């Protein structure tokens, strides 16, 4: 028997494998993968040596990468963890990339050519503080100067060769915060400047070899410092005082500390709050006062003198030594649609070494950062190249007045994704123009035929593969019959909207959100979320579809919101508006007006609800359904969920007729001492459910409880809200709820003792699958809950259905007492999970797959059949025929079931699925630092022929058959005739 | 297995006793901990009070459990109601026994409910609600020991859902220790949509109350080879029931039948065909003669 069970299991598994996996030569046919790094924070060039010119960058997505300076490609890249933010990056010994991360507690060295980790040192830190990395710039490799690291109250000196900690100094007691470490070249004495309590400046002279304090000087500055600092030379720094109106030059080299105060008002008339720009310039600092950038020269005695000022908002690079002890720096400023790059000598600001004007795309915004590098031109003069980071996080290399390459790094921080249809193909375009010529088409098919008959030579195989990747019209910008070509609209954190083509992932258009009022307070709103605003349907076919982008000015929750409507076909902003109230929640309503614009409700912090679009037609539609509009809010911090209903117009307070007040209908109050909300989830509003009922093996019917108003809530004990393993199983429990959001009824409540979050869940049709950690079993678990409707269970009788004595067509109201029951089952799951999604198809007929984003940044497709509460240890024959898999305690992880096959979606954050027109197929888009797209067919493409179906073979067979029929007919005619003549 | 039987036996006892006594009170079973390893079941408490007049009589004191660790204390909390947007006012009282377990947990048992009758103004207010299809709202404290606790737990229902003969209401109070998480409130059965305006014949409440605490998830079963192996010991599982001949081979029989039928018709046609053939032959002969 065991053998039989095993065999059937094997059979199931093998069939599962067949349906998941793809062949090697199918990789890249329907899927694409794009690698990004994120917004660059630091950049270090490595161009001294001949050979590959590269730039080492660290980014806000915690990526350290080496980029090819010629083409912008990634040589190597490492994505550190989400909590492992990079504080500094440098190159040591000319061959190691040094990164400091996690607030100065992790120091790593990576091999420059290939990115292998050479050593890793974890440094002891005691408190939170800003961290500082100082890598000695020594051109002589034989002398080992240590790397000086400050972080968490400790100063460490680390050997660059093997990462060994040479010495450490404890500054935790006095609260000393290191601001600058100066390593004068050629001496082993380092100067460590820092502040105690932001008011006392202390300079330590430390022997960098042994870590001994040679001298210590301190001086109290009565006003206190603001913390902004600029080191101008090896013996002077300039700081701002706490009122931001006085610049203080601190000189510290010859045995003592000296302060020299210069009020900003002495330098410039219209004084205001000053800000020291972070650029490192020699003997000069850049100060920003009243939106003007001042270049202040620091004289020998600490005398400050304004030498230049720029009125525009200007980005500057650090200064860079060029020939003859001179230093140069680059500055970039905007003028209309152009940017001007200027490289000047620090000492002679009038001496402009380079002035270039480059046409720049308006949708990149302003220049945020400039990193400069010099090279020797073919005519032996100095050449400069600049790496600039734009407001939309894109990274560009400028050289010789042109953009050499650009990378759209905004796509590394996608916040919301939706899909849109492409425009219909125009009738006028002839097929031959877009498609291949007939000859090419035939040639392709002959090649395919050769391939399938195993006659192809290696060159042919390559040609076939190429053909497949560029398969006919996959990348066209028109809608196709199967709905495979679509636009993926991705909203990024800097507020840029991208439209990506599903065929090859190229950017069709992009658009940077603009503030409609152009006010100074909100120059650039950041994007929050994306909604389908207008999806043209049967009436209103002429309209272009559009999306609604909801943005916000500032990070505050009560910051005013901005709405922007974007045409999907063209990428142009149709209109945008400053809505004048905050945005807490955006609720698409199930109503559309005559132009197919969807009605949306936006809730603000005051508790009012605003209706959009603001048209009288929308208002009349809304008034009709006024009684039946409910909404809910989740106050995760307080542990309260509230349900609301519309009450009336808020005409009493404002004259706005599109503003409505609400009143509270129900509350669910979780006891604060035992439960804390960690996850809430609803069904996707546009999900399609095909079958309302499920047929059991014993010909019994189960009606799914398919409600759009179900909310899944998971709570844990407050103690268990921390990291996994921080509590004992007795202290932590996990409770999950299914709550009806109209009446606040709890339909299902299940507590898991000794379990802990984080909870990742997916909600579809009538089931929820959630993933959590079981502390008792020391394993991750996955539980499935299916909810069924009992009130319709009587409708099994055929006669009742025929005679119409059923309640299937009766309207369902939430005020009826729900007669539901749930089934649930738990399984162990071997992996930690980042996110879970589920496939969605056009009609909901195709069976579903769970898409599990694993900790390894891959996506695992798991059949829903594996998480079916009706699984039993020993299913009967009938159940097996139905497709029920024998119960196992662990969900299988089949290596072939990774839809990302060999790729990794680094920093995976979300998976979005969208149906295609072909019922069997679904689009899957995963985003994180990388982007990945593929098409999945959870039950195989049962409704279409595969791409590699050989039409040529079919054609040839038919032709051959017809020929054979004709020949045999002629032959038989002849034979008959001769018989007759006989 | 024995424990399970015991559980069934216990529940049977409770069931039968409640029939015998014909009491409105539900005995609280002492095995609320659930038996170790037994299938967990929801601890639901039902009380129903048919008429408020009856409720206001002093409840008969029943035999107490002679449990030394029994640290029961009586608690009372009020139900408040509001008509539409009006303020909340007291509408009834829940009284229950709070049981403190030796491990510190608390459970509410022996819940009773006495509903106040509507006053004349309240009746008018309720009628207005019925006319406007507005909400009748109730609230309970979120903590029964120190009401109102953190916040009130509110529930609402469209007023038109309540009237039948009298006013039927149904509470499901979700408890966690001494805390009330949520209350589901509504009519005991269906609420027809569209809601019809219907005034109650009797202005008295017919209340049903259920106390619900959280259900324990079953432990994820761990089975390895043992279980698969134990099946081996059990021997062959009975073979699937023999299906009838027709059920087994219908897919072969139908084409066969078709073939046979086809053959039969062919044969009958064949019989006629020679005649036709001769006729054709005659025509040719005729044509030949004409030439």
Description:
The complex is a heterodimer of chains A (982) and B (291). Chain A has 982 residues and is mainly beta. Among the domains of chain A are: 438-463, no CATH class; 680-829, no CATH class; 950-982. Chain A has 9 helices and 64 strands. A 6-stranded antiparallel beta sheet of chain A has the order 43-44-45-48-47-46, with helices on one face. Chain B has helices at residues 2-21, 52-55, 120-132, 225-234, 245-290; strands at 44-49, 73-83, 89-100, 106-115, 135-141, 152-158, 167-176, 179-186, 205-213, 215-216. In chain B, strand 2 (73-83) and strand 3 form a beta hairpin. Chain B is elongated and about 100 Å long. Classes of the chains: A mainly beta (982), B alpha+beta (291). The interface between A and B is large, with 54 and 59 residues.
What would you say about this model in short?
In chain A, the strands form 15 sheets. Chain A has a six-stranded antiparallel beta sheet with strand order 43-44-45-48-47-46, with helices on one face. Helices cover 11% and strands 44% of the residues of chain A.
| Tally of separate helices of chain A | 9
The value of Rg of chain A in angstroms is 34 Å
Uncertain stretches of chain A: 5-19, 428-434
What is the CA-atom radius of gyration of chain B, in angstroms?
36 Å
Structural class of chain B: alpha+beta
* Average pLDDT number of chain B: 69
Backbone structural class of chain A: mainly beta
- Give the overall shape of chain A: globular
Q: Name the helicity range of chain A.
A: 10-25%
Main β-sheet of chain A: number of strands, strand sense, barrel status? 6 strands, antiparallel
Question: End-to-end distance of chain A, in Å?
Answer: 72 Å
Spatial strand sequence of the major β-sheet of chain B:
4-3-2-5-6
Structural topology:
The complex is a heterodimer of chains A (982) and B (291).
Chain A: H1 2-20, E1 32-34, E2 40-46, E3 54-59, E4 63-68, E5 74-79, E6 86-92, E7 96-101, E8 106-111, E9 117-122, E10 132-134, E11 147-151, E12 154-158, E13 165-170, E14 176-182, E15 189-196, E16 200-207, E17 212-220, E18 225-233, E19 236-241, E20 246-251, E21 258-263, H2 264-267, E22 274-276, E23 284-289, E24 292-298, E25 304-310, E26 314-316, E27 320-322, E28 326-335, E29 338-345, E30 352-359, E31 367-376, E32 382-390, E33 395-399, E34 402-407, E35 414-420, H3 431-434, H4 438-452, H5 458-469, E36 487-492, E37 496-501, E38 507-512, E39 526-534, E40 546-552, E41 560-567, E42 573-582, E43 585-592, E44 598-603, E45 609-612, H6 616-624, E46 630-635, E47 640-649, E48 659-669, E49 676-682, E50 693-695, E51 701-704, E52 710-716, E53 733-740, E54 746-753, E55 755-764, E56 767-774, E57 779-789, H7 798-803, E58 820-829, E59 833-838, E60 849-854, E61 859-863, H8 877-882, E62 910-915, E63 922-927, E64 931-936, H9 951-981
Antiparallel strand pairs in A: 1-64, 2-3, 3-4, 4-5, 6-7, 7-8, 8-9, 10-11, 11-12, 12-13, 14-15, 15-16, 16-17, 18-19, 19-20, 20-21, 22-23, 23-24, 24-25, 26-28, 27-28, 28-29, 29-30, 31-32, 32-33, 33-34, 35-36, 36-37, 37-38, 39-40, 40-41, 41-42, 43-44, 44-45, 45-48, 46-47, 47-48, 49-52, 50-51, 51-57, ...
Helix pairs in contact in A: 4-5
Chain B: H1 2-21, E1 44-49, H2 52-55, E2 73-83, E3 89-100, E4 106-115, H3 120-132, E5 135-141, E6 152-158, E7 167-176, E8 179-186, E9 205-213, E10 215-216, H4 225-234, H5 245-290
Parallel strand pairs in B: 7-9
Antiparallel strand pairs in B: 1-9, 2-3, 2-5, 3-4, 5-6, 7-8
């Amino acid at each position: 028997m065991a053998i039989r069970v095993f065999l059937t299991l094997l059979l199931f598994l093998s069939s599962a494998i067949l349906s998941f996996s793809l062949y090697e030569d199918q990789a890249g046919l329907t899927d694409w993968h794009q690698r990004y790094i994120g917004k660059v924070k630091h950049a270090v060039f490595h161009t001294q040596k001949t050979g590959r010119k590269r730039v080492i960058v660290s980014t806000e997505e915690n990526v350290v990468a080496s980029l090819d300076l010629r083409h912008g490609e990634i040589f190597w890249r490492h994505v550190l963890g989400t909590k492992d933010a990079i504080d500094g990056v440098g190159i040591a010994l000319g061959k190691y990339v040094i990164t400091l991360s996690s607030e100065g507690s992790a120091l790593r060295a990576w091999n420059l050519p290939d990115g292998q980790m050479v050593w890793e040192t974890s440094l002891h830190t005691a408190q939170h503080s800003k961290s500082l990395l100082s890598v000695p710039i020594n051109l002589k490799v034989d002398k080992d100067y240590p790397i000086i690291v400050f972080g968490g109250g400790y100063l460490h000196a680390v050997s660059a060769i093997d990462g060994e900690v040479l010495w450490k100094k404890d500054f935790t007691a006095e609260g000393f915060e290191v601001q600058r470490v100066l390593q004068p070249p050629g001496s082993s004495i380092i100067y460590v400047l820092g502040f105690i309590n932001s008011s006392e400046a202390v300079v330590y002279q430390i022997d960098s070899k042994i870590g001994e304090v040679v001298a210590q000087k301190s001086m109290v500055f009565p006003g206190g410092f603001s913390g902004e600092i600029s080191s101008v030379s090896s013996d002077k720094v300039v700081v701002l005082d706490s009122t931001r109106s006085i610049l203080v030059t601190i000189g510290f080299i010859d045995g003592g500390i000296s302060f020299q105060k210069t009020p900003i008002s002495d330098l410039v008339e219209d004084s205001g709050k000053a800000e020291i720009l972070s650029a490192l310039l020699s003997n000069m600092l850049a100060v920003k006062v009243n939106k003007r950038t001042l270049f202040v020269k620091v004289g020998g005695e600490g005398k400050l003198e304004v030498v230049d000022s720029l009125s525009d908002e200007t980005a500057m690079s650090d200064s860079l030594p060029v020939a003859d002890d001179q230093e140069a720096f680059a500055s970039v400023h905007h003028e209309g649609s152009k940017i001007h790059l200027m490289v000047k000598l620090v000492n002679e600001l009038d001496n402009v070494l380079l002035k270039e004007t480059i046409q720049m795309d308006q949708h990149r915004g302003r220049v945020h950062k400039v990193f400069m590098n010099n090279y020797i031109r073919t005519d032996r003069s100095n050449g400069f190249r600049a790496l600039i980071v734009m407001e939309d996080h894109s990274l560009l290399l400028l050289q010789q007045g042109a953009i050499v390459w650009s990378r759209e790094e905004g796509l590394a921080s996608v916040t919301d994704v939706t899909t849109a249809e492409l425009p219909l193909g125009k009738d006028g375009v002839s097929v031959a123009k877009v498609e291949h010529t007939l000859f090419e088409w035939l040639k392709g098919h002959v090649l395919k035929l050769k391939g399938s008959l195993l006659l192809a030579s290696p060159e042919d195989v390559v040609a076939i593969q190429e053909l497949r990747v560029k398969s006919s019209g996959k990348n066209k910008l028109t809608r196709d019959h199967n709905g495979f070509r679509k636009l993926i609209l991705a909203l990024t954190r800097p507020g840029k909207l991208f439209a990506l083509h599903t065929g090859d992932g190229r950017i069709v258009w992009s658009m940077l959100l603009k503030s409609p009022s152009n006010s100074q307070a909100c120059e650039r709103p950041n994007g929050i979320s994306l909604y389908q605003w207008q999806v043209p349907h049967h009436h209103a076919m002429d309209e272009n579809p559009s999306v609604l982008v909801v943005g916000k000015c500032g990070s505050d929750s009560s910051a005013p919101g901005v709405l922007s409507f974007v045409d999907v076909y063209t990428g142009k902003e149709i209109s945008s508006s400053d809505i004048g109230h905050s945005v807490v929640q955006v609720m698409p309503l199930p109503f559309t007006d005559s132009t197919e614009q969807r009605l949306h409700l936006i809730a603000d912090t005051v508790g009012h609800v605003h209706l959009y679009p603001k048209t009288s037609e929308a208002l009349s539609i809304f008034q009709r359904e006024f009684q039946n509009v409910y909404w809910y809010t989740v106050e995760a911090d307080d542990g309260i969920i509230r349900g609301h209903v519309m009450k009336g117009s808020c005409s009493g307070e404002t004259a706005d007729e599109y503003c409505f007040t609400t009143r509270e209908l129900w509350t669910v109050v979780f006891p604060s001492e035992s439960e804390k909300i960690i996850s809430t989830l609803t069904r996707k509003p546009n999900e399609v459910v095909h079958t309302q009922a499920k047929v059991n093996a014993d010909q019994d019917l189960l009606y799914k409880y398919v409600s759009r108003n179900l909310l899944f809530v998971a709570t844990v004990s407050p103690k268990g809200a921390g990291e996994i393993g921080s509590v004992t199983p007795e202290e932590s429990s996990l409770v999950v709820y299914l709550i009806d959001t109209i009446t606040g009824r709890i339909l299902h409540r299940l507590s898991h003792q000794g379990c802990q979050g984080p909870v990742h869940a997916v909600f579809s049709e009538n089931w929820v699958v959630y993933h959590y950690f079981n502390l008792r079993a020391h394993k991750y678990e996955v539980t499935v809950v299916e909810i069924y409707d009992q009130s319709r269970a009587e409708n099994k009788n055929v006669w009742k259905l025929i005679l119409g004595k059923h309640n299937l067509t009766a309207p369902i109201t939430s005020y009826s007492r729900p007669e539901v029951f749930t089934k649930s089952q738990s399984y162990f799951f071997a992996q930690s999970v980042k996110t879970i999604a589920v496939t969605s198809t056009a009609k909901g007929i195709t069976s579903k797959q769970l898409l599990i984003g694993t900790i390894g940044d891959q996506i695992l497709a798991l059949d829903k059949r594996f998480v079916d509460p009706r699984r039993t240890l020993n299913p009967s024959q009938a159940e097996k025929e139905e497709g029920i898999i024998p119960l196992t305690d662990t969900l299988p992880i089949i290596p072939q079931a990774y839809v990302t096959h060999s790729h990794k979606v680094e920093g995976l954050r979300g998976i979005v699925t969208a149906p295609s027109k072909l019922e069997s197929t679904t689009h899957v888009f995963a985003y994180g630092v990388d982007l990945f797209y593929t098409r999945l067919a959870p039950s195989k493409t049962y409704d279409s022929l595969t791409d590699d179906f050989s039409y040529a073979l079919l054609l040839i067979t038919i032709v051959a058959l017809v020929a054979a029929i004709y020949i045999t007919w002629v032959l038989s005619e002849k034979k008959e005739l001769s018989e007759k003549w006989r | 297995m024995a424990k399970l039987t015991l559980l069934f036996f216990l529940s049977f006892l409770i069931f039968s006793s409640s029939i015998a006594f014909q009491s409105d009170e539900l005995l609280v079973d002492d095995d609320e901990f659930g038996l170790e390893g037994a299938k967990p079941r929801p601890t639901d408490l039902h009380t129903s009070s048919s008429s408020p007049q009856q409720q206001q009589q002093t409840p008969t004191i029943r035999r107490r459990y002679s449990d030394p660790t029994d640290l029961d204390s009586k608690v009372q909390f009020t139900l408040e109601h509001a008509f539409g947007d009006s303020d909340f006012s007291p509408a009834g009282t829940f009284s229950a026994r709070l049981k403190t377990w030796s491990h510190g947990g608390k459970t509410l048992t022996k819940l009773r409910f006495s509903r106040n009758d509507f006053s004349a103004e309240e009746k008018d207010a309720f009628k207005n609600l019925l006319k406007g299809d507005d909400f009748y709202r109730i609230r309970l404290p979120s903590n029964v020991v120190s009401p109102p606790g953190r916040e009130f737990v509110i529930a609402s229902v469209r007023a038109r859902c309540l009237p039948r003969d009298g006013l039927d209401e149904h509470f499901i109070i979700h408890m966690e220790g001494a805390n009330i998480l949520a209350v589901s409130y509504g009519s005991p059965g269906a609420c027809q949509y569209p809601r019809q305006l219907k005034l109650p014949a009797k202005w008295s409440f017919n209340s049903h109350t259920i106390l619900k605490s959280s259900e324990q998830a079953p432990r994820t079963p761990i089975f390895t080879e043992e279980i698969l192996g134990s099946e081996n010991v059990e021997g062959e599982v009975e073979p699937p029931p023999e299906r009838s001949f027709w059920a087994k081979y219908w897919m072969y029989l139908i084409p066969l039948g078709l073939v046979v039928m086809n053959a039969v018709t062919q044969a009958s046609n064949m019989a006629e065909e020679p005649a036709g053939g001769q006729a054709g032959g005659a025509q040719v002969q005729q044509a030949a003669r004409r030439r």
